[in-house]
Amino acid sequence: MRVADLGEMDGPMLLFGGPYSNLAALEALIAQARVRGLPPERTICTGDVVAYCAEPAECVARIRALGCHVIAGNCERQLAAGESDCGCGFDEGSACDLLSAGWYGFADARIGSADRDWMRGLPDLAVFRHAGRRHGVVHGGVTDIARFLWPVSPDDAFAQEFAAFAEIAGPVDAIIAGHCGIPFVRETPWGRWINAGVIGMPPNDGRPATRFALLDSGRAEIEELDHDHRAARAAMERAGLTQGYHAALCSGYWPSEDVLPAVLRASG
């Protein structure tokens, strides 16, 4: 695995995941960083720049121009390798499996070779020190880039990930992740797990606001991100991406709840 050592970070940091080809959300996130005085060198993306929405190439170009730290997500790894799906390992016939065929093919057709080269060069993990603690960054997990760890996942799942991270990059006091789309901060016996959430899709809570995280003075806080979700939906409709995620941008509910533990489903 490729590990990026980001060194010592001084001051507040902005953490975010999953732009998901939602350019309106990415621009809103960049505006938040600017208002808060947070430069790109203190901004970390946990991957999946490209996914469900309608502007994959535009989001990659914006992220590259911004120059923030980026960890490879499963979508970056799959696109770089020329694979035919997003690599999440969804159960065959599940809503996520069926819906991913539409958006992944759309993105794959619009990402050029230079952007695939950039994706290929992204690190798998990162480490940095902040406020006296050593932090690690992953996409989903170390054991599996597309591992879904939820706020209700069992302790042993987090134990496995902290142990796997330590084996590759040394022990850490906290791990920052993304992928699952649900933001949370969980204290475990092995360290703090910070899922910064994703900015490209709401966290299945019935509202269009998405999420990012701020790390400051040893505290991790989940923040809401308002963006022009109607414009993002309209862009998906123009592109023919109308399998359900376009509606989720406004309704706040995923068309693929079957990926969630039952307790986290709107119907649960």
Automatic annotation (TrEMBL):
Residues 34-216 form the Calcineurin-like phosphoesterase domain. The lineage of its organism: Bacteria, Pseudomonadati, Pseudomonadota, Alphaproteobacteria, Rhodobacterales. This is Calcineurin-like phosphoesterase superfamily domain-containing protein. It holds the Pfam family Metallophos_2. InterPro entries: Calcineurin-like_PHP_lpxH (IPR024654), Metallo-depent_PP-like (IPR029052), Pesterase_MJ0912 (IPR011152). Belongs to the metallophosphoesterase superfamily. YfcE family. It comes from Jhaorihella thermophila. SUPFAM superfamilies: Metallo-dependent phosphatases (SSF56300).
